[in-house]
Amino acid sequence: MTGHPRRSRGFTLLELLVALAVFAILAALAYGGLNAILQTRAETERQAARLAELQSALTLLARDLNQAAPRAVRSEYGDVLPALRGGPLAPLPLELTRGGWGNRVGHARSTLQRVGYAVEDEVLVRHSWRVLDRAQDSTAYPLKVLTGVRRFQVRFMDEGRQWLDDWPPGVLPTQNAQAVQPRLLAVEVQIELEDLGEIRRLLPVPG
Fold first, then answer.
1. Is the pTM of this model over 0.85?
2. How many whole angstroms separate alpha carbon 144 and alpha carbon 140?
3. C or N: which end of the chain has fewer Cβ atoms within 10 Å?
4. How many domains is the chain built from?
């Protein structure tokens, strides 16, 4: 006796709905996992970029101080300014003459350069001048080196290993300073960042 061939049974509506629900749950879980991975990656890249920015700023500061030169300069008003000055009483928290200013195109200028640091609108800015002894029309060229800065402060260690808030000691950094100054051993840089908190670095100064 020959039977009728068995017909293939299709999915019922209920089975389709269950399958779709399972697929939607798996897709949501997969998207959530992928989104978490992408967010973690983006945050890691952001932190890496931030640390690179901080490292670059600290390297620039260290290089300037490591190449500090004992060359006083004249302000736009003719006053003699110390080779290095800074602190709360100074116009800029840190200002100095440094050597090693590259001159690849052979301009007729010194290899010494006057630079200074200050915080402007929560950005640490490095100012530089094209000339050492300024005229009244001399321009400072700003370079943004670090963002998100709440505070930039420096302290100075003298040859007796005493910490001073202002340099040169005993003379207001805004006044004419032609006298021989004591030796400076190091500068402590304190930077307070809005996301990383306070960073401190002790940077030696050549004697």
1. no
2. 13
3. N
4. 1
